[in-house]
Every structure is written in C-alpha cells, then in structure tokens.
UniProtKB/TrEMBL annotation:
<feature type="domain" description="Major facilitator superfamily (MFS) profile">
    <location>
        <begin position="325"/>
        <end position="538"/>
    </location>
</feature>
<feature type="transmembrane region" description="Helical">
    <location>
        <begin position="213"/>
        <end position="234"/>
    </location>
</feature>
<feature type="transmembrane region" description="Helical">
    <location>
        <begin position="240"/>
        <end position="264"/>
    </location>
</feature>
<feature type="transmembrane region" description="Helical">
    <location>
        <begin position="421"/>
        <end position="442"/>
    </location>
</feature>
<feature type="transmembrane region" description="Helical">
    <location>
        <begin position="454"/>
        <end position="475"/>
    </location>
</feature>
<feature type="transmembrane region" description="Helical">
    <location>
        <begin position="327"/>
        <end position="345"/>
    </location>
</feature>
<feature type="transmembrane region" description="Helical">
    <location>
        <begin position="114"/>
        <end position="134"/>
    </location>
</feature>
<keyword id="KW-0472">Membrane</keyword>
<feature type="transmembrane region" description="Helical">
    <location>
        <begin position="495"/>
        <end position="518"/>
    </location>
</feature>
<dbReference type="InterPro" id="IPR056555">
    <property type="entry name" value="NFD4_C"/>
</dbReference>
<feature type="transmembrane region" description="Helical">
    <location>
        <begin position="180"/>
        <end position="201"/>
    </location>
</feature>
<dbReference type="InterPro" id="IPR010658">
    <property type="entry name" value="Nodulin-like"/>
</dbReference>
<protein>
    <submittedName>
        <fullName>Protein NUCLEAR FUSION DEFECTIVE 4</fullName>
    </submittedName>
</protein>
<keyword id="KW-0812">Transmembrane</keyword>
<keyword id="KW-1133">Transmembrane helix</keyword>
<dbReference type="Pfam" id="PF23262">
    <property type="entry name" value="NFD4_C"/>
</dbReference>
<dbReference type="Pfam" id="PF06813">
    <property type="entry name" value="Nodulin-like"/>
</dbReference>
C-alpha cells in the first residue's frame, strides 16, 4: 500500500475530514443573519418568525433519525454503506432546505405558506444532526479510550462553525442575507460530499500516540478559537475594509485546511514506523497470540456484580435505555442545563438593551458566545478525560459541577451590576457548551457505543423543550408583564426574576446530575476504568 493510500485510510485522516465538515455544519446558529430578510420578504410579524425559529431549534436537535440511520448503515455486521450515507442524507436535506428558503426570500417562487417555510427550515437545520452524528459517533469508535476528548473536538468545531460562517458572510455576502442563504445551501453540503468518503470506522485499537496527536488537534482548535475571538473583537471596534476582511478569511481558511491534514500525516507516519519496528522482531520469532477479548481476566468477576452493573455491560438500544432511570436523569439534567443556556443566548440582545449596554457591546456578547460555547464543549471533554484517566472521577461529577456554575452565572446576570453580562455570559456560555460534550460521552459509556447516536440525539431534544419553557413561559411572560405599561422594559427588574428562576432550575439540574454521579460511580470504577486500562494496544 502506498503512503498516500495509507494516509487516506486512517483514523487520523477521518478525524481531519470530520473537523472540516463540522467547521461548516453549524448553519442553524446563523439564523439571526437572515431572519430579518425572511421576516420582511414574507410579511411575517415577530410571532410568526419565532414560530419558524422554533422549527429550526427542533430540527437542529431532534436527531433520532440520524442515529437510527447511522446504526443501520455503519454498524451492521455486513457494513452495507458507512458513515458517508449519513453525511449524504444530511447534504441533501441541507441543500433542499436552504435552497427553498433562498427561493422564497428572493421571490423566485410565490410566497409560500408558513407551514411550508417551517418545514424547509426544519429540514435545513435537521441536516446538522446528520453531520454531527456521523462525525461524533465515528470519532468515539475510532478513539474509544479518549471519548471525551474526541467528542469535545467535534462538538467544539460545530460550535465554532457559527463564527466561521459569519466570517464567510462578512467577507463575501455582507449586507446580502439572501445571497448568504444560497451559500448555506451550497457550502456545507459541498464540504460534506467532498470529505465524506474519508470518514470511516477503523478497528478500535489503543495506540500510545492517540493522546499525543489528539492533543495536537486540541491545540489547533484552541488556536482557531483564539484567532476568531480576536477578529470578532476587532470587527466590533473597527470597520474592516473589504481587502482586510478577505485577507483575514484567507488566513483562516489556509490554517483550517492545512493544520488538520498536517497533524493527520504526522500521526499516520509515526504509527506506520512504530508498526514496522514492532513487526520486524515478530517476523523473526513468531509466537502464537490469543485473540483479545472485550474484557481481561481481571474483569471476569464482574459477573458477580449487582445486576445494574451487569446490564450496563451490554449495548442498549433506545427503548431499553428509555426504560432506565439513568436515561431520564440525563434528560432532566439537560432540560435544566441546555434549556436555560439556550434561553439565555436567545434573549441576550434584549437583556443588553434593557440594561443599557451599547449596540457594540451587545454585538460582542452575541458574537463571543460561540467562543465561550466552544471552550465549554472542548474543555469539558478534555478535562473529563483527564480526570477519568488520572483520578478515576466519573464524568457525571463534572456535569454536576458545570450545572452548579451555570446557576451562579444566571445569578450574576440577574444581579444587574455593572459589567454583569460580561461575567454572566462567559459562565453560562462555557457551562452550556460543556453539556454538549459531556452528555454524548456519558451516553456512550452508560448505554454503549452501538446505539449511541440514537440515544444521545433523543436526549438532545431536551434542549429545544427547555428553551421553549424558559424563553416563552418564563422570560417572555415576565418581560411582557413588566413592560405592560410601556412598549419596552428598561432596568434590572425586566429579567431579574426570570434569571433567578433559571438559576434555581440549573441548581436543580446540579442535584439531578449529582444523583446520576452517585448511581454510576461504582460502574465507572468497576467497568469503565478497566475497559480503558485493558483495551488492546497497537
């Protein structure tokens, strides 16, 4: 096999390809760019636009079908198809959804009924779950020992993709939201189709190099996040000329393409050299080796563990998982964490206006949310792996700690002191993002990898459910009540009660996650840690 063929068929190249796809996949986060154009072109009032937005949130989080498809085509024994089928399904939905929205906004088709717009908005956002499922679950299969790190990287780049797409808009489509819609129909779908043949599942052997080169991908992710943060801040302070915008985007594009490929190439060459060095003495003195089993001999006494632990040794399907207490503890915790976090960003502009922040400051809060979201997604995955490997801490403990910190962030926002949104948005943004990497990883460990895509996408529905409850039934209701005498509400009283309620909800989520930790603590020490220590090495 040539060096190029070996490189194109490795888990490292699959990781690089997944990063490229994830970097363009978060189009649902860019709704605010074209929402005004959609509203004016279709003659919608704010309530109708909010209805369309709800279908966007549902589509971006209801990924059950993507999980079912992944299990059917990528994990069956005959391996009919592969992750590329899931990517292709996502690309088709992305193109159809955004192309229809572009046609409606530009007048290419007669003004469609609201139901049709909601359907295609759902379809466009639903594509994101197919990209995400294919990349995240494949990554966990290829790096099962460092599931938290690989999920953090994949989820992190999905979070950063909104900032990357905003850079595309500022560079090529600024002031032309309809053109941006056409770009959303073409760019994510094209990137997915181009790189999907490289995203494959490889035999899950543990290599000494895994941690080293996953750390390299992690450092690259932090570099991209830092670059985008600097650009966002500068763009909110200064007015960039067109050539400056193009230059910054080209620099971003070059780094985004070359760095993952460079890391993948180095990792594959290193592993190839190590494999050659290992095989040479074996060829001279061959010795028979027993096939490695799923668990080592030291793990055999697990048969005598309580039934709850034995059940977790088997991969559960969705229905069986939904029959367990652990599933519903995770689901409730995510309603509290993801729901209150999403409600915060959905109302960030209104909060800033009521507290007297300038337009520049409000734009900075909204733009930088993607960075804090990334840091939470990436950081929680990396830190949870570190704590699990070095101290044996079960991941639900970190989930509980982040939910407690999120409660503190909600209290900071409710307080209304000078600069509260700076501190509060950072705390809530990081803790919100952390749930998106912790939840899928915990799902894979408690319920097994085989049906991970279906199960974690089902739990993800907690995000739009929680967002609806807190945005509409809590924040919206209380804001309208406070502003009943005026057209708008100004002052700390507009959102104080809402965020105190959400702080209480986040604290309740902390208690639920703490309960999950105590329920799974023995399982992590008896099963998960032994899997990591006794998994086969290359």
């Amino acid at each position: 096999m040539s060096e190029m063929e070996r490189l194109s068929s490795s888990k490292w190249t699959a990781t690089a390809a997944s990063i490229w796809i994830q970097s363009a996949a978060g189009s649902s986060y860019a709704f605010s760019i074209y929402s005004s154009a959609l509203k004016s072109s279709q003659g919608y009032d704010q309530s109708t636009l909010d209805t369309v937005s709800v279908f966007k949130d549902i589509g971006a989080n209801a990924g059950i079908l993507s999980g079912i498809l992944y299990s059917a085509v990528a994990l069956n024994r005959r391996r009919i198809g592969g992750p590329w089928v899931v990517h292709a399904a996502g690309a088709i939905q992305c193109f159809l959804g955004y192309f229809f929205l572009w046609a409606a906004v530009t007048g290419l088709v007669d003004r469609p009924p609201v139901a049709a717009v909601c359907l295609f908005m759902f379809l466009a956002a639903h594509a994101q779950t197919f990209y995400n499922t294919a990349n995240v679950v494949t990554g966990v299969h290829n790096f099962s020992e460092y599931g938290g790190t690989i999920v953090g990287i994949m989820k992190g780049f999905l979070g950063l993709s909104s900032a990357i797409l905003v850079q595309v808009y500022d560079t090529f489509c600024k002031g032309k939201p309809s053109t941006f819609l056409l770009m959303l129909a073409l760019l994510p779908a094209s990137v997915s189709i181009l790189f999907m043949p490289l995203v494959r599942i490889y035999e899950a052997h543990r290599a000494d190099t895994d941690k080293k080169y996953l750390n390299a991908f992690s450092a690259f992710a932090l570099l991209i996040a830092a670059y985008l943060m600097v650009i966002i801040i500068l763009e909110n302070i200064f007015s960039f000329t067109s050539w400056a915008s193009i230059a910054t985007f080209i620099a971003l594009l070059v780094v985004l393409i070359t760095s993952p490929l460079g890391i993948a190439t180095k990792a594959q060459k290193f592993e190839s050299n190590r494999l050659t060095e290992t095989l040479d003495p074996l060829l001279e003195n061959p010795e028979p080796r027993l096939a490695s089993s799923k668990f080592s001999a030291s793990e055999e006494p697990v048969e005598h563990e309580p039934e709850m632990l034995v059940d977790r040794l088997e991969d559960m399907n969705l229905l069986r998982a939904m029959g367990s207490v652990d599933f519903w503890l995770l689901f409730i915790a995510m309603i509290c964490g993801m729901g209150s976090g999403l409600a915060t960003i959905n109302n960030m502009s209104q909060i800033g206006q009521s507290l007297g922040y300038t337009t520049v400051e409000i734009n900075s809060f909204v733009s930088l949310w993607s960075i804090w979201n990334f840091l939470g997604r990436f950081g929680a995955g990396y830190v949870s792996d570190y704590l699990l490997h070095t101290r044996g801490w079960a991941r639900p403990l970190l989930m509980a700690l982040t939910l407690a910190t999120m409660a503190a962030g909600h209290i900071v926002i409710s307080s209304g002191f000078s600069g509260n949104l700076y501190v509060g948005s950072i705390l809530v943004g990081i803790c919100y993002g952390s749930q998106w990497s912790l939840m899928p990883t915990i799902t894979s460990e408690i319920f097994g990898i085989r049906h991970m895509g279906t199960i974690f996408n089902t739990i993800s529905i907690a995000s739009p459910i929680g967002s609806y409850i807190f945005s509409v039934r809590v924040i919206g209701y209380i804001y309208d009540k406070e502003a009943s005498a005026e057209d708008s509400c100004n002052g700390t009283h507009c959102f104080m009660l809402s965020f105190l309620i959400m702080a209480s909800v986040a604290f309740f989520g902390f208690l639920i996650a703490l309960g999950l930790f105590f329920r799974t603590r023995r399982f992590y020490s008896s099963i998960v840690l032994k899997r990591l220590r006794h998994s086969p090495r290359q």
